[in-house]
Amino acid sequence: MIFNLTTVRVLRQFVQVVFLLVFIITILQATYPFKPWLPPELFLWLDPLSATMPLIANRHFDLIFLVALIVLLSPFVVGRAFCGWVCPLGTVIDLNDKIFTQHLKKINPLWRSVKTGLLMLFVVLALLGIQYSWLMDPLPLLWRSSGVIVLSFLFLLVDTSLAILIKLGIFSETLMNFQDRLNAYLFPVASPVFTNLLLPVLILVIILALSNLTRRFWCRHLCLLGALLGLIAKLSPLQRRVDQNLCTKCGICRRKCKMAAIEEDFYITEKSECILCLSCAPQCPPAAITYDWQSPGRMTSKIDLSRRGFLGATLGGLIGAGFFKINQPDSHHSDRLIRPPGAITENEFMAQCIRCGECVRICATSGKCLQIAFLETGWEGLLTPLAKFRYGYCEYNCNLCGQICPTKAIQPLALPEKQKVKMGKAIFLKERCIPYRVNENCLVCEEHCPLPDKAIKVIPQEYIDPLNGNKRIVLYPQVDENLCIGCGICENKCPLNGEAGIIVIREGEERQLL
Fold first, then answer.
1. 497 pLDDT exceeds 70?
2. pLDDT surpasses 50 at 384
3. Cα–Cα distances in Å, from 433 out to 281, 338, 475?
4. What one-character-per-residue DSSP string does 370-419 give?
5. Hey, how many other C-beta atoms are within 10 angstroms of the C-beta on 438?
6. Range of weakest confidence among 68-77, 248-257, 297-306
7. Which strand (E) or helix (H) includes residue 205?
8. What does the alpha-carbon distance between residue 281 and residue 285 come to, in Å, rounded to a whole number?
9. According to the model, what pLDDT value does residue 323 have?
10. To 5 degrees, how large is the angle CA 369–CA 51–CA 512?
11. What pLDDT score does 170 carry?
12. Are strands 502-505 and 425-428 parallel, antiparallel or unpaired?
């Protein structure tokens, strides 16, 4: 079977754009109120690494991840076409290559084995209970970068530009209506505020900047999903073929190949690297290149990992697991590390969470309490979601983080059930709380407590001013520990600058079971 390669190449570019737009739409669906017509988790459900790595690390599998078999088994038929046709990060890298980058160097082909070694390293870590593949898995990585960082930045840019135009009187009414609708859809509560964004931003910037070394450097040498699909693609019957009677060895095909998959003889193609981009064929002067189906025969090369590489990955995994387990969070602050309502037990949570940022993104549209962790929970908890109540609070009538979590690290709880789950409990810092410190009334925490039967009670007591002997009634707040669910709105709304006069600690937190 011979394809019209020019037509198929144009089709591939169209398909790339379509899947990138679908990916963007899934991000835009993650908002409050949550009424998606396309699941925000779609691409993560399709991700074989998001399916297998938590399974290996946590011994738990969610049936929804059976859809990942579509991607996992596709290389048996069409090779590593997912990387060239579907992967949204690959499309972003292609766009970046066309606009910004210059390809300055040729990279030693031995670099191909790096991604396979990294895949083995993360598998070993997962076997030891440390799930860290999310760091170099393209789909969670791009969702986290786009959904939390890029979208928020673009929103602030557009919102600021609209505000300037409105102030200048340019189509004020029309733009004001558009601004209100944009705000109501993307961030209905308030403008987004996120912490610890440097590392996610840095990862994305490095991935794009590496293309200055050579095209698709990330896909060639570092992508874990590419390594997994490439191993299976070695058995694909769809192959690039070169008519040796027509080939003039002009070298155009090698120069155009995005993945350096064409060997020095111009005839052999490393199937584990070929992403079926078809960049080589249309510009072949004698039209010597075709793609068709044939018997896989024997592999064109060995698996890209030597015995020494395998032993190195295993040793690296053992050392890494030990490091992650030894590096524990600061015990002086561990009582403030609050997980979302519905979060499973901590060890399971670390292994199950793929750090996609979906819960952080959707929380930004309701209560804004979930933020990206840096080292507060140790290296093992890097980029996991934490509740930081000075930035936001857990909205009483919202249970979206559990609904949107693709791996069920945060369990989906019905709203009445979620409203009873304790994230922790509030306590007063009497050396800071206004009524206790200066003996003046302040009812902000009590007024904002969302529970039908307030968890914060005010107790009137007579106070005698030692300076002049005047008497007055001061309302001193107290927390009913049996009612408090640790939603954090009291800490968030406390009018004090800096540390609040009331804080939420982990004591009494309730975790779910898988």
1. yes
2. yes
3. 72, 22, 12
4. EEE-SSTT-GGGTT-EEE-TTT-B--TT--HHHHH-SS-SB----HHHHT
5. 9
6. 297-306
7. helix 198-209
8. 9
9. 59
10. 45
11. 80
12. antiparallel
What the block records as the tokens of 425 is 């409990």
What is the identity of the amino acid at 67? V
Between CA 461 and CA 80 the distance in angstroms is 73
d(CA 296, CA 201): 41
Domains in the chain, CATH or no CATH each: 422-514 (3.30.70.20)
In angstroms and rounded to an integer, the radius of gyration of the C-alpha atoms of the chain is: 27
Task: Count Cα atoms within 13 angstroms, Cβ side, for 409.
Answer: 30
Highest mean pLDDT among 239-243, 379-383, 395-399: 395-399
Q: Which amino acid is at 240?
A: R
C-alpha angle 85-91-97 in degrees, rounded to nearest 5: 130
φ, ψ of residue 505 in degrees (nearest 5): -115, 170
Q: Which residues contact 291 (CB under 8 A, 6 or more apart)?
A: 2, 3, 5, 238, 239, 240, 241, 276, 278, 281
Residue 72: which residues within 8 A CB-CB, separation 6 or more? Answer: 48, 51, 228, 229, 232
Q: What is the dihedral of CA 433, 434, 438, 443, to 10 degrees?
A: -130
> Helix or strand or coil: residue 282?
coil
